[in-house]
Amino acid sequence: MAAPAETLVPVERIGIQRKATGTVAVVGNPNAGKSSVFNRLTGLRQHTANYPGVTVERRIGRGTFGATTLDLVDLPGTYSLSPTSTDERIAVDVLFGRVAGTPKPDAILAVIDSTRLYQGLYLLQQLVALGRPMVVALTMVDAAERDGLEIDLGALREALGGVPVYPVVATSGRGFAAVKEALGNVLTLAPPRAVTHWPELEAAADGLAQRWLAGGSDRHRVEVERLLIDASEDDRLAPALRTDLKAAREQLFGREPPLAVEARRRYAWVKQTLAMVETPGSGVATQAARFTDWINRPWPATALLLILMFVVFQAVFAWATPLVDLIDLAVGGLSSLVATVLPDGMIESFVVDGVVAGVGSVIVFLPQILILFLFIILMEDTGYLARAAFLVDRAMRSVGLSGQSVIPLLSSFACAVPSIMATRVIPNRRDRIATILAAPFMTCSARLPVYALLIGAFVPAQNVGVFNLQGVVLFGLYGIGVVGGVATALLLRRSVLRGENPTFILALPEFRLPNVRTVAMKLLDRVRVFLRRAGTVIFAVAVVVWVLTYFPRSPAVDDARAAAEAQASATLADTALEARLAEIGNQAAAEHLEQSWLGRAGHAVEPVFRPLGWDWKVSAAVIASFPAREVVVAVLGTIYAVGGEADEQTLGGQLTAAQWPDGSPVFTLPMVLGLLLFYAWCLQCAATLAVIRRETNSWRWPIFAWSYMTALGYGGALLIYQLGSA
Amino acid sequence: MVLGLVEGAELTFLRRSLGGDPLEVRIYGAAISLRDEQARRFHVVPHGRAR
Lengths: 726, 51
Prior knowledge:
The structure holds 2 protein chains of 2 kinds.
Chain A: H1 4-7, E1 22-28, H2 34-42, E2 46-50, E3 57-65, E4 68-74, H3 86-95, E5 107-113, H4 117-129, E6 134-139, H5 141-146, E7 150-151, H6 153-159, E8 165-167, H7 176-184, H8 199-214, H9 221-229, H10 239-253, H11 258-277, E9 278-279, H12 287-295, H13 298-341, H14 346-363, H15 366-382, H16 384-398, H17 406-411, H18 416-421, H19 429-438, H20 448-458, E10 463-464, E11 467-468, H21 469-494, E12 505-508, H22 516-550, H23 555-571, H24 574-595, H25 597-609, H26 616-624, H27 632-639, H28 648-657, H29 669-681, H30 686-696, H31 700-725
Parallel strand pairs in A: 1-4, 1-5, 5-6, 6-8
Antiparallel strand pairs in A: 2-3, 3-4, 7-9, 10-11
Helix pairs in contact in A: 4-11, 8-9, 8-10, 13-14, 13-15, 14-22, 15-22, 19-21, 20-28, 20-29, 21-29, 22-30, 23-24, 24-25, 25-26, 26-27, 29-31, 30-31
Chain B: E1 11-16, E2 23-27, E3 30-34, H1 36-39
Antiparallel strand pairs in B: 1-2, 2-3
């Protein structure tokens, strides 16, 4: 039998899931430790999705506190209820119950950093005004104690109209028993006493609310207060309400921006309250504080950034390699196993070259992406990201980006997918889009196999001064990627993304140790997103490429192969026979490929790529690499009849020998350099496009990025080949 | 503004970043970063060596 308390819950109180009896919004300033508190209270019982229409993550978790089960909604961090970014707008919309699919919270859990009470109180004052049951978790009290900072909890509670305040330490779990107990009774907790801070505003809002009520628009006084202050909401309202608001605003604020008036009014109260509840620390610099101070100076900080990035790259490329090799081995083993079990033919080819290879090409990325995500999350959670942004802000601004672009851009030297997901930390939309479009230019790890193949085969390994020419060319390709990205960002910020940053003021959190649980959960989350968004695309692309290279089959090729094999078996034996059979097999694969749709497409577009010096084989390989550039080496291997698994030397030799019908070499130096530039600038990665689509929430940017980068790559290759061959 | 850079607020200058811009200031315990062009818009009265 169900407990009576449960059967008495009104139906509308039941959230999206059955058993929770109410919803509690977890609200707080950015970096106040909100997510750690949320994780401590909900454990693993949480799920993540995006809010409808935006890329802001909605995290809902369930927790049982005494006899009460509650759904906790982890809202994006915000400094006030007057939103200045999409994240903050979502937080405010959820609080007012304006988001479809998310119930209006019954109560509020405010998470406030005790070392930054100044900004915390500003938000608290606005939250108290909502008049809903509320509990405050005062975080990082250990840091406050270390600094000798004292907070009078009784006085704070009094100033907040009786809202209970609980000191906690999220990393150790200290104080959470009391918070859990308070949450158990939160639904029946008396809402805070109304404290009047700003009588003029309240009177104006009251008047409007009553007037609108007569017209059938039921809006709470506090919501009207927000509408009065925040004009950006206006276009969502009926014209009559808009006129009312405009008139009331003029009376209240005169010519001053409402937000400035609000800040002045509310911070006056904050200063007063702060003087009452907080006794500042003695200010004695500890060893740790002195070290932080030193490491934050420009030059030590630059050194630290370089060292950190070096470690990240080392990790991505060196630590991931054994895992990648292991995955390659496992996929290879699985392929040969399947090949022995299944009979030769289409099904076998589909399973081996389509499905297994497709899954393999997804998971082969996982080690690198996991490591990269881990570092990005660690930098976010320790507060380092803001430090790095502060350090390079001026330099990045000179190329049309902002300091916050630096970590995403550096990460895209490994892979653009996690780096584009990491651009969420950039609050300014224009900066964010410019960063997203610059990221695919950075030389990612998938470009390296192509570079290695072409440089190894065609750039002489001689020394230029003290440098090796091959190394110089590789370095040049990295440089060309950076130049392309930076030029793109500059161009965009001067044209479609023109505009100043309204107020770029960045909070610089103190360095803090990351919480293992929070980091693990974030990591899991992002990997899930990668697998779902990018993984499905990569897999689908692998299957499509298989279809294009497999069909249509020509029986003539198979007949010729059978005849050749029969003849070889009759005349040769042992190793000579084996070699001959492999040769015949590769030859047949190459002929099949020429007959396939991909081969025909290569022939069809050859005229387009002819001015770049490419024959149909190169054209076909380039077409095949548009969905995922790393497949080009395997496709070239098949086309040049050395097999998809051929090593660099064999394939390189085959490429060197490739000729036009008139006997002149296909791979001349200008052609190779053009081809390299093409790969440096082209966006040949369906996963990146899928992620750009997701993060910008429109098809416009991925389509633009693809067309623009393809045009740039084509133009560059054309220029080099024509100039070089002239 | 929402960070509390309002009339009457007490600031402690901490440092300049690489190339002299942006600035880092402390405002009642919280460090924030300000770009030069924004910092110029404030009128600041020196107050001696703060804590």
